[in-house]
Design goal:
This protein is of the alpha/beta class and 375 residues long. The protein has two domains: 103 residues, no CATH class; 245 residues, Rossmann fold (3-Layer(aba) Sandwich), CATH 3.40.50. The protein has an eleven-stranded mixed beta sheet, sandwiched between helices. A hairpin with a 2-residue loop joins strand 9 and strand 10. The chain is globular, with a radius of gyration of 21 Å.
Length: 375
């Protein structure tokens, strides 16, 4: 399942960026793939809301803004399509006319959202790989852990140990189950390779997997208790993927029942303060999933330099899930594909990088590739 993870240049126009995004979404969202292909072929469809924010993030922010207007009760034929996942999509001409008409009608609302919001894809299914990654981190550290998630959004993935995951195999009928058997949030991940992630031995509650301390950090945290804020988070979920929306709603209930602090601020300013407050008997794990992709090359380099500097004071584990080119300092490998799940052990300013898995960006499939002594 090798995927091209190249991105358009920073100065690419809407036509090129939406055409690229159409190919990226072809396998998992026919609605966004077809709308993107139409917008890529005729950027004039987007005229009422131009100019769009530059960069590869453009389509996600645009579609989330459109989806938010739909969730707010927009009455329009395109809104009806967004609200009917699973229904056969109309012809391209109908979709194109619908998109152009919707943007003319709701140009102010869509433009305002794009100007004031950022993409908040708090994809819960990524916890299917966070859980085994934290088992590896626990083994590597030899101590209890303190988890600090950068770009935490609403913090739904900080509750990874409260979810249950079904791991299936593409090549054989075996199913592995991990996590609390009565969990309200149930995840699925298809394994493509021969290795199976460490599953915790089927013991519940599982000792050691839950961090002794957990917290989040985000430029604009989303409060799980604020329905308006959560509507934006749900708008970032593709409308033709109702299972993702259902997971997010279930995970929101878990997060409301188990409050975790999410700190606001820039990572370069706030992260050192958070790490300094972690008790010395705990090993901090700094985690991010699809966050560095939204930063500039300079910001990514500064982030990596910050972690290296922090490791001169104490050992730090760095768990990142990104496209490989967005993980500064990690050596590129010939087998790199999709989203790389990398665990770096930083000590004394030096880093040892461990590749744990290659996966879909939402962890719907994964190739686990790290051998460990734990189950």
């Amino acid at each position: 399942m090798k995927r091209d993870v190249s991105v358009p240049p920073p100065d690419a126009g809407p036509g090129a960026v939406f055409s690229w995004f159409a190919g990226l979404r072809e396998r998992d969202s026919q609605l966004y793939a077809r709308l993107s292909r139409l917008a890529g072929a005729d950027p004039g469809l987007l005229a009422p809301v131009l100019p769009l924010p530059p960069g590869s993030n453009m389509p996600l922010l645009f579609f989330a803004s459109v989806h938010h207007v739909v969730l707010d009760g927009a009455r329009h034929p395109l809104a009806d399509i967004f609200r009917a996942p699973g229904r056969e999509l109309p012809a391209d001409a109908v979709l194109a006319d619908g998109l152009a008409s919707f943007l003319k009608t709701y140009a102010a609302e869509v433009s305002d959202l794009m100007a004031t919001r950022a993409v908040q894809t708090n994809e819960v299914n990524r916890s299917a790989l966070i859980a085994p990654a934290m088992r590896v981190a626990r083994e590597l550290a030899g101590t209890e852990l303190a988890l600090v998630e950068v770009g935490a959004s609403a913090g739904l993935n900080l509750h990874f140990d409260r979810y249950m995951t079904y791991y299936t195999h593409r090549s054989r009928p075996t199913v592995h189950v991990s996590g609390p058997p009565t969990a309200a949030v149930q995840l699925k991940c298809e394994l493509l390779g021969d290795l199976v992630p460490p599953l915790g031995g089927g013991v519940h509650p599982e000792p050691g997997i839950g961090p002794a301390l957990r917290m989040g950090l985000d430029l604009a945290p989303v409060s799980v208790h604020d329905d308006t804020e959560m509507r934006w988070l749900h708008a970032c979920v593709f409308p033709d993927q109702p299972e993702r929306a259902a997971r997010a709603r279930a995970a929101t209930a878990v997060a409301r029942a188990h409050p975790v602090p999410i700190h606001a601020g820039d990572v370069l300013d706030v992260l050192p303060k958070l790490l300094s407050g972690v008790p010395r008997h705990l090993t901090p794990v700094v985690m991010h999933t699809w966050v560095l992709a939204y930063l500039s090359d300079r910001q990514r380099a500064d982030f990596a330099a910050l972690l290296a500097e922090q490791s001169r004071e104490r050992r730090v584990l760095w768990l990142g899930a990104e496209w490989p080119q967005y993980l500064p300092g990690r050596p590129a490998l010939p087998e790199d594909e999709g989203t790389v799940w990398s665990l770096a052990d930083l000590d004394g300013g030096e880093a040892r990088h461990h590749t744990l898995a290659y996966a879909h960006e939402h962890a719907t499939w994964a190739t686990w590739c790290h051998k460990t002594s734990i189950e």
